[in-house]
Write a structure and sequence with these properties.
Helices cover 72% and strands 0% of the residues. It is an all-alpha fold and 273 residues long. The longest helix has 36 residues, at 101-136. The protein is globular and about 55 Å long.
Length: 273
Amino acid sequence: FGLAIVFSAVLARLGWVPGVHETLSYAEWLSIAMVVTGIGLCSAYGPSSEDELPFDEIGGYFGRPAFLSYACLALAFVFGWVALLAPRSPLRAWRPDPRSLKLSIGTSAASGIAGAFSTVFGKIVSEAIFTRLLSKGDTSVVSNGVTWAALLGILCAAPVQLWMLNWSLGSGKAAFTVPLYTVMIISNNVCLGGLLLDEFSCLAQSHWQMAIFITALMLVVAGVASLSAQQEGAKLKVGDAAPNGVTTPEASHSVTIFAGVAGAAQHEQATVE
């Protein structure tokens, strides 16, 4: 994730992607460095599980009250944004401006939530197919409803993740939207892993690990907040410089470096909307 942020910023700065060339300030580079450092520390010292996934028990984990509470709120948030951005939506009057900070944050959060569910479901499917079926010859996973439910979850969550990511990438500079999306998907992965798979237990066993993890989270939040402030400041400057406050085509160009497989769809969608 950290390398994706760096490469996206470098590609945008060097203009190696046709039609995309972004100028980054020293403050933006510093903010990106803060986010990358925080993500690296979160990956190294954050919640994790060294034990094998208890596949036979995973079905019961989905009934945990803490997980159900998080899942209901998270999915309601995602469905709300889907309804808001759907073509010919009756809620279109409340849709944020395509270049607004509200749209960037909302769609990044929705994409991160969908991506986190895709990751968890993918881990379950991987455990079922590669660890149980192919490595151990356990054919019971084929008839296990958890396997098929996880596969269905991937088929539902992955398209929503890419669609929301398209909107997010088209709403601002790559140096802002890519770190924002990365923070959203990592934070939701941490929440899902902790609530569903008990990955928070390792933090309770080590106070210094928890301290490093909390510090890393604060570093990431500070970096994203700094990028958000600079993103809004840049938009205000462009609006003041353009005639009658109208943003020029160059300033409103959609950036889709991070998810090239969805770039064409995003450009078409942004143009139509």
